[in-house]
Inverse folding.
């Protein structure tokens, strides 16, 4: 069963944690609430928070951290 896809709305650098050395916002299999921050995408020194569109369990999570993501790239799925 596929979950709800969370895709990158902008091109930029993906950050899975709020700051260097801190733990990630979410891990695979975590339960999240609607509106919870999943990632930050840094685009031209603007930090765009990517929030969960629904509550559920994270069934897929990108391994990318600190690397570039493209518009519409799959970042996570929530079931």
């Amino acid at each position: 069963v596929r979950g709800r896809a969370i895709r990158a709305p902008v091109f930029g650098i993906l950050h899975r944690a709020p700051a260097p050395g801190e733990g990630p916002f979410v891990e695979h299999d975590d339960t999240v609430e609607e509106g919870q921050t999943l990632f930050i995408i840094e685009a031209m020194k603007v930090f765009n928070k990517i929030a969960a569109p629904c509550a559920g369990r994270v069934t897929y999570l990108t391994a990318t951290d600190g690397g570039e993501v493209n518009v519409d790239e799959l970042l996570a799925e929530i079931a």
